[in-house]
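Re: Re: token formats

Sure, here are both.
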Amino acid sequence: MVVLNQVFDIEKKLAGVDDREKLYRPLEKIKTAFDSDEMQFLIDDPIAQKYDITRTDVETTIVGSSHDNLKIVEVFKPIIKITSNGVSRVIQKGVVIASSTDNVESK
């Protein structure tokens, strides 16, 4: 999982780079190398997704004074899932910060 976390981190950092296409291809090859006929890995970036307390796939710190209309605003670790024989399960919870969309709109 360390390698998959590093791939996620590199992809995040590449978002601001102009000529990132040349670098995405090797990253995709690394991710594909983890897959096999029996199992596939998925790196799930939950940024901008709705958050509520029933989510079990992330460990969350809530910032701001309101806990209504929460949205994930920062991702430190992605959700990593593995699919095997048609069954998907989380093998790493995401570590995120959530904030009220009411707080974001008022800025």
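Second one below.
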Amino acid sequence: MSKPTTSSKTPSLLRPMTAEAIERAARADRDAQPLSETDLKRMKRTPQAKIIRRALELTQEEFAARYHIPLGTLRDWEQGRAEPDQPTRAYLTLIARDPDRVNQTLNR
């Protein structure tokens, strides 16, 4: 019996694009143009509280109760009617980083 042979073909070498070539290619694609300052200002950002709540797979009611946030306040944040102040943003950061510990601390 003869031993099967493997192909000795080498793959073609890839030539990476230069930064300039990437920029030219991107600018040539009319569907991939960079956003202007005006575009960025008119776009709505998803509020941090909503992102955190969804990542934790909690309803607004569950999140508000667990982390002692008034439900109406949470809804205002999530709908963009109000923004959390700096201490509250810090609190939301703690929730995002260690939600179980914050929950245990608040709800012993």
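The chain has seven helices and no strands. Helices lie at 19-28, 37-42, 48-55, 60-66, 71-78, 86-97, 99-106.
- S.
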